[in-house]
């Protein structure tokens, strides 16, 4: 037979577990920043590299220091889409150099 005291203990325990499970989904911090993280790298064929270089508008460097899991170069294209690229790829460094030169020439 259940007593009112044991029923109240169960309700408190249930509420505690419910709040504990919900906390990560509403808590600010690294978990919520994954929406801005690259999780994989784009696969780019050699024949498309030149086209991508012409369409890139800007880039940012993603570090793997807690907020995101992998290092990446995130290119923002003229159509506002993003491409996540592996930083040590030759074509990635060429596009970065081209963008940096273009930026330096306009200053």
Walk me through the structure:
One of its GO terms (molecular function) is chemokine activity. Residues 1-27 form the signal peptide. The chain is α+β, with helices and mostly antiparallel strands and 107 residues long. The protein has a single domain, classed as OB fold (Dihydrolipoamide Acetyltransferase, E2P), CATH 2.40.50. The chain contains three helices and three strands, in the order ααβββα. It has helices at 4-26, 49-55, 90-106, and strands at 56-62, 72-77, 82-85. The protein has a three-stranded antiparallel sheet with strand order 1-2-3. The radius of gyration is 24 Å and the shape is elongated.
Unreliable runs: 25-32
SSE run? HHEEEH
Question: What's the total helix number?
Answer: 3
Task: Please give the share of residues in helix.
Answer: 40-55%
| Rg calc | 24 Å
Shape: elongated
Total count of strands:
3
Level-1 CATH class name: Mainly Beta
CATH architecture: Beta Barrel
Instruction: Return the structural class.
Output: alpha+beta
Give the integer mean of the pLDDT values.
Answer: 80
Biggest sheet overview = 3 strands, antiparallel
Strand order of the largest sheet: 1-2-3
Query: In the residues, how many domains can be counted?
Result: 1
Q: Examine the coordinates and then state which fold CATH places here, giving the name of the CATH topology.
A: OB fold (Dihydrolipoamide Acetyltransferase, E2P)
**How large a portion of the residues is in β-strands, by DSSP E?**
15-25%
The rounded distance between the terminal residues' Cα atoms is 81 Å
